[in-house]
Amino acid sequence: MSGNREQVQNRQSNGQPEQGQQVNDAPRKGGWLPLRQMAVVLVVASLGLSLAGCGPVGTSSGLENSASDTSNQFVNRSVRGNLLVSKMLPIRLRLRNGWQPAPENILHDSADLQAYNPDTDIFLIVLGERRASVVAGSLEEQASRYLQLMKTGMSQTLANESLTEVNSIGSAPAVQYELRGVVLEKPVAYLHTTVQLDENYYQVVVWTPDDLRTANIGEMKAIVQGFGPDQR
Questions:
Q1: Number of compact structural domains in the chain
Q2: What is the CATH classification number for the domain harbouring 154?
């Protein structure tokens, strides 16, 4: 496998994101911290009032290139009805009541889709990667690699990760874990789903403050089920 990070598409390195729909009361970008120069640490302030969630998310092909650049990559997306659609990839997310598109690059510089629910403090990103760019193996093995990558950015895990009963998102095979940990001194609860769709792997990552985990886990699982291919 090539040491260079191979993304699902060639992302623009030095351009500016398109002018898109402005989201009122959007979470502010709090800051960026390199994690061994291979993953991005998210710092998201919910409605500018409190730090709602943070966590490291990256692609496994980046593990082999410590100089991989995870910034200045802009991905276009648009809203079509209640669908958040990637302009670069044939994927979409069905937005449930209360959900909004997040402004580009607020939750993750390389996310193909990103959204949040300001009423419940739940955040979501989708990050795609070519299956050909990662170590050969099963969907379960790849899901485990992604999970281990996330855990490297945690100062503490609050509980062992647990595999959920989900084995598909729509008709696409999937592996889903619940994960809890402390990042930048903030306890966060994650729902991490690896989806195999055509020639790509997609990480659908949803998170919320850990003290809201019990109240929000149902909605977190429901929004993931709205991910799928875009029938254009």
A1: 1
A2: 3.40.1000.10
Q: Please report whether residue 185 resides in a domain.
A: yes
Please check the confidence at residue 221 and state whether its pLDDT lies above 90: yes
Q: Which domain holds residue 140?
A: 28-229
Question: Is residue 22 one of the residues assigned to a domain?
Answer: no
pTM of the model: 0.72
Return the number of other C-beta atoms located less than 10 Å from residue 15's C-beta.
Answer: 10
Is residue 8 domain-resident?
no
* 81-130 pLDDT per residue, tens: 899 999 888 999 999 999 999 887 788 888 899 999 999 999 999 999 99
Q: What does the block give as tokens for 193?
A: 């789903």
Please provide the distance, in angstroms rounded to a whole number, between the alpha carbons at the two ends of the chain. Answer: 32
- Give strand ranges (E) for the chain: 28-29, 34-35, 39-41, 44-46, 50-53, 56-57, 77-80, 83-86, 91-94, 100-101, 113-117, 122-130, 156-163, 168-169, 172-183, 186-197, 200-209, 227-229
In a domain, 141, yes or no: yes
